[in-house]
Structure formats: C-alpha cells, structure tokens
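Much of our argument rests on the idea that a fold can be written as discrete symbols. In the encoding step, the backbone of a single protein was reduced to a row of integers, each denoting a local shape. We regard such an encoding as a compact summary of how the chain folds. The record that follows shows the chain in one-letter code together with its fold in token form:
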Amino acid sequence: MSDTHNVAYAAAIYTFTRTFGMCIGVAAGGAVFQNQLKKHLADLGLLTTVAADAEVFVVQLQALPKSSPEYQNYVLAFAKRFENVFKFLIAVASLAEFLNSMDKKLDKGRRKSLLLGGSAGEEEK
C-alpha cells in the first residue's frame, strides 16, 4: 500500500503498467500467435493464408466435418499456437518479476529521494 501523499504516483504507475501490459498481451501476443500459426500450418501441409485471417477461418472450420483429418489438423495447429502464446506471456511475466526483484534492492531512502524529486546520488539528511 502507498502512503496518502503517494496515491497519485501509485495511480499513475498502476495505469501505466496496465496499459503497457495490454500492449504486450494484444500486440505481441497476436504477432506470436499469427507467426507461429503460419509456421505450424506449413509444417502440417495446410493453407498458410489462414494465419492472416484466423478469426474468419474459425467460422469456415465449423462447417468441416469434425471427424475429417483436415479439421483435426487445423484444431491441432490452433491449439499449439495458443500454447506458444502462453509460453511467451509466461516469459514476459518472468522478466517482470525479475525486474521487480531488482527494484526491491534499492534502499528505501534512495527510493523516497527519487519520489520526492531528488537525484539518485543525493543522500537523505
């Protein structure tokens, strides 16, 4: 929790990290999904153009018989790509945790000095 006089700073940091997280999740996650889907579709000998417009293809996929090998391969390709996105986001979260642990090594006086507008090398009096 933050002190009363630091509530504005806490709200700004929260908003920034939330927005930054959405950018990572949507933009980077979407790019990982699309690129890995294209690669896996090529490995299975399926149309790679599906990766560019996967949302539309899902409707077409529902029209295929569920017992057909083509349907099964497309479902497999989509499932594997979601796994890749999950692994990517786990890596991003691990990096964030590492950076957070590095931040905790800053001593409290230095952190307070930085928050109050002092320089990093300035000692508290």
